[in-house]
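Feature request, filed as a ticket because there's no other form

It would be nice if the structure record came with a short human-readable summary line next to the C-alpha cells. Right now we just get the raw output. Example of a typical job, pasted below so the devs can see what we mean:
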Amino acid sequence: MDIKKKFGLKIKELRKERGLSQEKLAHLAEIDRTYLPSIEKGERNVSIEIVERLANALNVKIKDLFDE
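Raw output as currently delivered:
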C-alpha cells in the first residue's frame, strides 16, 4: 500500500478513536477543513509541517502517525 494511503488511514483511525469530526480535527490542526478528507484518502503528499500539526492536534508523537 502507498505511504500516503497508509498515513491517511492512520489519521482517520486516530481521529475516530478520539471522537473527532473531520471539521474539528482540521480546526485543531489549523488546516482547511476541505484538505483533511483528501489526506485521509491518501490523495495528498503532505508537508512535514502538516504532519506535525496533525500529530499535535491528535495528541500523539509524529512517529505514531507512521506506526502500523
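Something like this underneath would help us a lot:
The mean pLDDT is 95.
The chain has one domain: 3-66.
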